[in-house]
Design brief:
The complex is a heterotetramer of chains A (118), B (1045), C (233) and D (301). By secondary structure, chain B is mainly alpha-helical. Chain B has 41 helices and 7 strands. Chain B has 3 domains: 127 residues, no CATH class; 291 residues, no CATH class; 462 residues, no CATH class. In chain B, β3 and β4 form a beta hairpin. Chain D is an all-alpha fold. Chain D is built from 12 helices and 1 strand, in the order ααβαααααααααα. Classes of the chains: A mainly alpha (118), B mainly alpha (1045), C mainly alpha (233), D mainly alpha (301). Chains in contact: A-B, A-C, B-C, B-D.
Chain lengths: 118, 1045, 233, 301
């Protein structure tokens, strides 16, 4: 179960990377990166998962006493939340950049922005 | 002390506050930003002082009231404190520098800047790995914003490339973090280190991912195209932060993470650093854009620090000293250079020539370059010294060699740049304007001050004396303050300084030091007399000259390898500046410097190899070097010294450097500076004596080199058309003689070498001065354009006449003494073949000497020279002094040599000379200078007297009044036989002087440049390609490290 | 084409790396030390029912502060990156086709409810699943809905920036107060912990989370607006 | 050996003898050459006459200071060379001023005259003078080399640099002469001797195109006289060195005259037989034939 999720995550990462490294269109690259991020997040949460346990929230189903045996590892969930938000921020920034670049050259082909080299 | 959390919270709060303000209140927002930066700098400075004074100890600060492993914690120790101080100062000064830009784009920009600095501090402070990731992302995003401060249209594309790469990096980092967490059950770095992550199942991979991600933030070669583009296009003030602060923070992050992986990862880090160091320096060779060049150099320096981090296992408690020295020096210098580049409009390297308009800025420039290259007295120097020693001690010679190689290349392109700035004509129409914004200039000078104070600090921290405490150096630096005063004042001061220093210190000298010391200090004073002939201020001359003399005097006083090497570097730098002053001397000065530094690095390596971990290695214990290392030490040191004596093969720098130098500089660098190499050889040979490598007697090899230098130097001198070049080549020959004498390793050989030291100083200085005077008057150095000057410049003529008689070794002048001792010396030599070369070389001296005097002073006077006067008075004075010395030395060589002869008895007991009465006897022959002089003079005088008596009525005939194949010439040019004077000789022996060495070194240079130019083209500028580079980099390192671990 | 193959080769190597990780991975059967600590201490120390929230807001509050800063940064930089001059609406007035009755009424009906849901989410963040980020996102979706209905919807950008700034400031200030009056930075025991499971419990946690919610909402919305206004420039 | 005043008149006496002998020798050789050419040839005392005539001539022109110094250097070199070397072995009377220096002094004092002459000629501003000098110096560098090597090998052989000792070590039968004890060295030295005697095939230095218009014409009257004197003294002084080093020296004047004559004749015969070399040719010649001999002699000792 965990391994399935995890391998899916890795698969997504690789797909995303492939897309972002082969597509010349900047927007496509950005989208591919979001795919990659999704994969990363999948991997993150899959690490914390333990079969047969519930979410780390104390309510009537989970008593304070036996909490240690009932819940799954809360940390990766906290981390993934952070990761998601940061991903959102970076994506937004990249989109804005894409817009700015389009403004300057009227194209979204990454291979056109090579004045700086060597 | 302010809690580090406040250090992070305050700028953050201020940034949020800025977000709330009105767009209109630009100045208010700027004020807030500036204030925050200032406070942060003060707070961190407070911390640094606290730790430095020892009143504080490293402490962890936990958050959320929970103990560290469970909640994020920050650590503050001396390292962190000084790094955040660095970061905050960089931020503060850049804020000052960015005034207009920030006001233009408004509060948001300032908020981003604040957060960037805050995040960098966070990277340094935090002990939680995920927190580290968060701060890294903050830096990435804020960088993405700050890149836009630049008005360069290409900046956005660079920023976007950075974002792409950073996406990849964060993917790697996150996966690494989560698996590391999984296998250790904690996110705390120390916790992971305690759980020794690197050894756990899957932990090694996780650690690899984390490490490679953080290292990628250091722009390692080849995954660094994006960084270069940012460096090139971003606003210089931001590049300063990016290079100085961001790199330092990331480097510290690497250092912080390494314990998690364990020692086995250190080699990986070292090799990555080494590759970046070499590659970046290589690529920088063919950069024309200043900011990009600086970018390459930053990458190289970061790589170097990475190497140090990778070597921490052997560096022990000196680790921080070394790494810090290199890191801080680089940070200050690079920030300063970027700030400086902001003052200029044009991005071409040569555009920096405008700096010449302001000596202070030029001084700043050279200070920064010295900081980067790691010359004394700057931190990099101490750091490099200790690094090399520790490497040698542990036998990591490959790393040692590569580091020194890279450093040499770096020095090469940096000083080539400096040469261009100082010498090139500021390029006409596209001449760069440079703005003198007071604040910006202030910022630059803040960096300069920082650099020098760092130098002082490191001097205090080093295991040895502080270079900035030695009187000669201070004396030299003092002249920087006197630059405004006229020459005559500074010159008098300089002469007084030299002489009085001699008077103070000579009682302590042994005869060997005494001879060198006299030549250096007193001799220097005499030559400086000639400098009175220059008028005006002569900016930069005296500091350089005095630096050279400081180095020389420290050299002969040095008791241990460190002081010796310091002195060596000082005199190299000083003489480089001196030589660079000549009109056409840019390329020659550069080749001089590169060769000298190369030699210096060999010497450094040699000492390091010899020291074997002894902190203060006394030169005297060169004799105790273990037998397996001894020959190698010998070779390294010998080659290093022979670059200074311009032995054949390493000689190509000398002719240009000596010939193109100013009139009064040539005698200094030729008559005095060359002796430094000889002194080094003397020390070496006294210490190590004869060494054998694979059965080859190394001194025997030196014999051959000396003989070859003597022969080829003289031969090449014969075919020169340029008078000063002729003299320069003859120096090569003369040094060859001296080297030969030393290599003979017997009593008389050394006596002869010392005789050459004195003689060569006297007559070469004299000749350079008089020829220089002639060149000054005639406005040319080409001999065939002169002629017949004897009547116009009689005194110069006398000087040259005496000089050449002395050089050629014809009795009765002092040159003969050298030859006589030489013959007696070789009679006891084991090796006879190289002596044949010397025999051949001897008479050849006549050829160029006669040519010199004939084509200058005899023959036909040219029409355009009919009006010229005798050389300036102050040029003549030292010449006449030299003539007197020459005569005196010819009559009574004993005064100088006798004590030295006795002194030599303790090294070479047999074969001394016998000095009874006026005549000198060896075991083979005898020689009585006085009676020779008397006899010759009597014969000479009587004949001359008679001739004058019978021809008393004779009157001088007109210039063309001579029988000339029944024709009378009308133009002097047609009858002045001077050009290609020794045509038949060239036909016969010209094949001997093929410029093989020149060709060889030229080939090496071309090879470097072309390879650099080809390989750097894989930075295609396409962001996607850069991402692929990064991925490839990761994969390659993965395969390698997994293979090795 | 060569490029593609090269990339494929590289990704294959990465795939190897990942499989290596995958194979070396064994799911835990017990909570590791950190998780165990959280499980046992959250309730009695911090009085929060939602452990994840406790971690986010308190234990790893610094991360969260970083997060909100990330959003703040991207919101601010967005304004910088997008070319100058577009903000002045004084270019040709944009004539857009009507978005239709349905969407208009629907949005007027839904927006208040959406806002309400968002607020509920982040106010109860320490008790139930959800929290500041989720709530903020939902609030922003309300803004999105309004934009869809009427792209020319006038928003007070200043309001947003004030809200986010104040929220951020308060966050920092409360955090710093924690150092002085409680166990440390962002320690939520600045206020009484209260009864586990009640709304007003877990000290400053709900307040902080609400601030985060407001901030995130404001930032997301302003990002949306900024991006939306670049439509036809 | 120390200086007594009596040595001055003794040295002058040596000088007188050598000058007369040299003049006669030159005339004699000229006569031989003439007779071979079926001419009557010059009067035996013709050189004396010329010399006296030239000395008694007055001149009223000069080309400058060095113009004076040239001949002075030249003759000074000749005389000095002669006087620094003991002429007769074992005679206190004719060991001249040799106390002031050993073989090396003689070796290097040879150049004194050459240098001065070159300078003086240069002063005349005459291009051909410069050409001649450049040729002379070029040739000298390689012509002297075998001699230097031979000297080195001889001094290695006898382990001394003092001429007197070298001669003394050759006493007792001509088989002790260096000629037989170290033939290679002698061979090398004699080859270089040819080069330094200013006779064919190595006399391109004062080739005809210099003679009528080079230094000798610029130098006239007493200048010329001095140079003529030197041309008589100098070869003999040089031969004396060769004699002492290689041919056992001379203990008495008759032996001296004989040996000098014979050694001199070597160069004469060679000169009569061989045509003239160009400078680069002679350089190569010395490097190819003479120098190896010298090297061998050094290695052989």
């Amino acid at each position: 179960m965990v391994l399935i999720v995890m391998s899916t995550g890795f698969l997504l990462i690789l797909m995303g990377l492939y897309g972002s490294l082969t597509n010349r269109n900047i927007l496509r690259m950005i989208v591919s990166f979001t795919v990659t991020n999704t994969g990363v997040n999948l991997v993150l949460i899959s690490v914390g998962y333990m079969p047969g346990r519930t979410a780390p929230i104390l309510d009537e189903t989970v008593a304070v006493s036996e909490v240690a045996q009932r819940i799954i590892d809360p940390v990766p969930q906290a981390l993934v939340l952070t990761a998601i938000v940061i991903g959102v921020g970076v994506t937004a920034l990249m989109l804005a950049y894409a817009y700015r670049l389009y403004e300057t050259k009227g194209t979204l082909d990454i291979s056109q922005f090579t004045e700086l080299k060597w | 002390m302010v809690s580090p959390l406040v250090l992070l919270g305050t700028p953050l709060g201020m940034a949020f506050l800025l977000g709330m303000l009105q767009n209109r209140w630009r100045f208010a927002s700027y004020g807030i930003t500036l204030l925050t930066m200032t406070c942060m700098s003060l707070f961190s400075a407070d911390w640094v002082l606290g730790f430095a004074s020892g009143s504080l100890v490293a402490t962890d600060f936990s958050t959320a009231g929970a103990p560290p492993p469970f909640a994020i914690s920050l650590r503050m120790s001396l390292t962190e404190a000084s790094l955040i101080l660095l970061v905050n100062l960089a931020g503060l000064f850049s804020t000052l520098y960015l005034k207009e830009e920030l006001l233009r784009i408004g509060r948001r920009g300032m908020a981003v800047l604040l957060i960037d600095i805050m995040a960098l501090c966070g990277i340094i402070l935090t002990r939680d790995i995920f927190n580290l990731f968060v701060f890294f992302e903050l830096v990435v995003i804020s960088t993405g914003g700050l890149v836009l401060l630049s008005d360069d249209q290409r900046a956005p594309s660079a920023g976007f490339k950075y974002l792409i790469v950073s996406q990849l990096i964060s993917v790697l980092l996150l996966i690494g973090i989560i698996f590391a967490y999984h296998s250790t059950g904690t996110l705390n770095i120390d916790g992971m280190a305690a759980a020794s992550l690197g050894l756990l199942k899957g932990g090694a991979l996780a650690f690899f991912l984390i490490l490679i991600a953080v290292i990628s933030e250091l722009k390692p070669f080849p995954a660094n195209g994006w960084a270069l583009d940012i460096y090139e296009s971003a606003h210089p003030a931001f590049s300063a932060i990016f290079s100085a602060a961001a790199s330092s923070a990331a480097l510290f992050a690497v250092a912080k993470l390494l314990p998690m992986g364990g020692e086995s990862w250190l080699p990986v880090v070292s090799s990555i650093g080494l590759v970046s160091f070499l590659a970046a320096n290589l690529f920088a060779l063919c950069q024309e854009n200043d900011r990009r060049l600086l970018g390459y150099s930053s990458i190289a320096q970061t790589g170097l620090v990475l190497v140090v981090i990778g070597q921490q296992d052997i560096l022990g408690e000196r680790y921080l000293f070394i790494a810090g020295g290199i890191l801080l020096a680089h940070a200050v210098a690079k920030a300063g250079l970027y700030w400086l580049s902001g003052l200029l409009s044009n991005r071409h390297l040569t555009a920096w020539t405008v700096l010449r308009q302001s000596p202070l800025l030029l001084f700043a420039f050279i200070s920064f370059i010295a900081l980067l290259v790691g010359l004394p007295p700057f931190p990099g120097f101490y750091a490099k010294w200790e690094l090399v020693h520790l490497l040698a001690q542990e036998g990591r010679l490959a790393i040692l060699g590569l580091v020194l190689l890279g450093a040499l290349v770096e020095a090469g392109y940096l000083f080539r740049w400096f040469g261009k700035v100082v010498k090139r004509s500021d390029g006409g129409e596209e001449a760069a304007v440079f703005s003198v914004a007071p604040i910006k200039t202030l910022v630059v000078f803040a960096a300069v001050a920082g650099g020098w104070s760092l130098g002082y600090l490191w001097g205090q921290l080093s295991l040895f004396d502080n270079i900035l405490h030695t009187i000669p150096v201070l004396f030299a630096l003092g002249f920087l303050l006197l630059e405004r005063f006229p020459v005559w004042l500074k010159n008098s001061l300089a002469i007084v300084g030299l002489v009085s220093y001699y008077l103070i210190s000579y009682p302590a000298y042994d005869p060997m030091q005494l001879i060198f010391g006299t030549v250096i200090l007193i001799g220097g004073g005499v030559i400086l007399l000639a400098s009175y002939s220059v008028s005006g201020r002569r900016m930069g001359f005296y500091p350089s000259a005095m630096l050279m003399f400081a180095g020389l005097s420290l050299l002969i006083e040095a008791k241990d390898s460190f002081h010796f090497f310091v002195a060596w570097e000082l005199l190299t730098i000083g003489s480089y500046f001196l030589i660079l002053r000549g009109k056409q001397s840019e390329p020659h000065a550069l080749s001089y410097l590169v060769f000298s530094l190369g030699g210096a690095f060999l010497i450094l390596a040699g000492f390091a190899l010899a020291a074997e971990g002894v902190e203060l290695f006394p030169l005297s214990s060169l004799s105790q070097v273990t037998a397996d290392k001894a020959p190698w030490v010998f070779i390294l040191l010998a080659v290093g010294f022979m670059t200074k004596t311009a032995s054949v093969g390493l000689h190509i720098w000398l002719p240009g450097a000596h010939a193109e130098a100013e009139t009064d500089v040539s005698p200094m660098v030729s008559g005095i500076l060359l002796k430094a190499g000889l002194y080094g050889l003397v020390v070496l040979l006294l210490g190590m004596g004869k060494q054998q490598l694979y059965g080859v007697e190394l001194t025997h090899v030196m014999l051959w080199i000396g003989a070859l230098s003597a022969l080829l130097g003289n031969l090449m001198a014969v075919f020169q058309e340029d008078a000063k070049r002729l003299l320069a080549y003859s120096s090569i020959g003369q040094m060859g003689y001296a080297l030969f004498g030393l290599a003979l390793m017997n009593h008389l050989g050394w006596l002869m070498a010392l005789m050459f030291v004195i003689n060569h100083y006297i007559y070469k200085s004299m000749l350079f001065l008089s020829v220089g005077g002639v060149a000054k008057r005639t406005g040319t150095r080409l001999m065939y354009q002169m002629g017949g000057l004897i009547t116009l410049m009689p005194l110069s003529f006398i000087a040259v006449l005496i000089g050449i008689i002395a050089v050629s070794g014809v009795p009765p002048l002092s040159g003969f003494g050298g030859r006589w001792i030489f013959y007696n010396a070789i009679l006891t030599a084991e090796y006879r073949l190289p002596i044949i070369l010397i025999f051949l070389a001897g008479p050849i001296a006549f050829l160029y000497l006669f040519r010199l005097i004939h084509t200058l002073f005899l023959g036909q006077l040219k029409d355009e020279h009919r009006q010229i006067k005798e050389a300036p008075f102050w040029l003549i004075v030292p010449q006449m002094i030299f003539v007197a010395c020459l005569m005196a030395f010819a009559l009574v060589p004993g005064v100088a040599l006798r004590r030295f002869d006795l002194y030599l008895n303790q090294f070479f007991p047999q074969g001394g000379l016998n000095w009874e009465g006026v005549s000198i006897t060896s075991q083979f022959g005898y020689w009585s200078p006085v009676s020779i002089m008397v006899v010759v003079m009597v014969i000479f005088a009587s004949l001359l007297g008679w001739l004058i008596f019978v021809n008393r009525k004779a009157q001088k005939v007109k210039q063309f009044n001579m029988v000339f194949a029944a024709e009378r010439p009308y133009r002097p040019e047609t009858t002045h036989f001077a050009w290609n004077f020794f045509a038949p000789y060239k036909k016969a022996l010209g094949f001997l002087i093929q410029p093989l060495a020149t060709r060889f070194w030229g080939m090496v240079m071309d090879l470097l440049h072309t390879s650099a130019d080809l390989t750097r083209r894989f930075y295609t500028g396409n962001g996607q390609t850069y991402a692929i580079h990064l991925l490839a980099f990761v994969v390659v390192v993965y395969l390698f490290s997994m293979g090795s671990l | 084409m060569i490029k593609r193959f090269f990339v494929l080769a590289l990704l294959f190597a990465m795939g190897l790396l990942f499989t290596d990780l995958l194979l070396s991975y064994t799911p835990d059967t017990e909570l590791n030390s950190t998780a165990l600590y959280y499980a046992n201490h959250t309730a009695k120390d911090l009085g929060a029912a939602n452990i994840v929230t406790a971690i986010i807001v308190s234990y790893r509050g610094l991360d969260t502060l970083g997060e909100v800063t990330v959003l703040f940064l991207s919101a601010a930089i967005l304004v910088l990156v997008l070319p100058k001059g577009w903000r002045r609406g004084k270019r040709k007035p944009r004539i857009l086709p009507s978005t239709g009755e349905l969407l208009g009424t629907g949005s007027h009906l839904l927006v208040p409810l959406i806002l309400l849901l968002g607020v509920y989410l982040f106010v109860n963040g320490h008790l139930t699943p959800g929290g500041g980020f989720q709530g903020g996102a939902i609030i922003a979706s309300a803004a999105l809905l309004l934009l869809l209905t009427n792209p020319l919807q006038p928003f007070s950008r200043h309001l947003f920036s004030v809200v986010e700034s104040i929220a951020g400031l308060c966050f920092v200030v409360i955090g710093l107060l924690g150092i002085v009056y409680a166990g440390g930075f962002l320690d939520n025991r600045l206020l009484p912990i209260g009864q586990l499971g009640e709304l007003f419990s877990a000290g400053t946690m709900p307040i902080l989370y609400s601030l985060i919610g407001l901030k995130v909402g404001a930032e997301f919305s302003s990002m949306l607006i900024n991006l939306s206004e670049t439509k036809d420039s | 050996m120390n200086f007594e005043w009596i040595q001055i008149p003794y040295s002058l006496l040596t000088l007188f003898i050598v000058i007369n002998y040299g003049l006669l020798l030159n005339a004699f050789i000229a006569k031989i050459a003439a007779r071979i050419g079926r001419r009557h040839g010059i009067h035996l005392f013709q050189n004396h006459i010329d010399l006296i005539k030239n000395y008694s001539l007055r001149t009223s022109i000069t080309h400058g200071v060095m113009f004076y110094l040239g001949p002075v250097f030249r003759l000074g070199g000749g005389v000095g060379l002669l006087l620094f070397v003991p002429t007769l072995y074992g005679s206190e009377m004719f060991s001249n001023l040799s106390f002031s220096g050993d073989l090396i002094l003689a070796l290097y004092f040879v150049f004194f005259g050459a240098l001065g002459m070159a300078l003086g000629a240069g002063e005349s501003g005459h291009p051909h003078a410069a050409i001649g000098v450049s040729r002379g110096l070029s040739q000298m560098t390689t012509a002297e080399l075998p001699f230097a090597l031979a000297v080195f090998s001889v001094s290695l052989q006898y382990q001394t640099l003092s001429i007197t000792e070298i001669v003394s070590l050759q006493q007792g039968g001509f088989l002790n002469w260096t000629l037989f004890t170290n033939p290679l060295a002698v061979a090398a030295a004699m080859l270089s001797f040819l080069g330094s005697m200013m006779r064919p095939p190595f006399d391109v230095v004062l080739a005809p195109q210099e003679i009528p218009i080079g230094p000798p014409t610029e130098y006239h009257s007493s200048y010329l006289a001095m140079m003529q004197t030197n041309r008589t003294i100098f070869p003999i002084a040089k031969i004396v060195i060769y004699m002492n080093l290689f041919f056992g020296g001379a203990a008495s004047w008759p032996v001296f005259f004989l040996k000098v004559f014979l050694i001199y004749m070597v160069s004469v015969f060679v000169g009569v037989v061989f045509p003239r070399f160009r400078v680069e040719q002679s350089i190569r010649w010395f490097l190819i034939y003479a120098v190896p001999l010298g090297i061998l002699s050094i290695l052989w000792v």
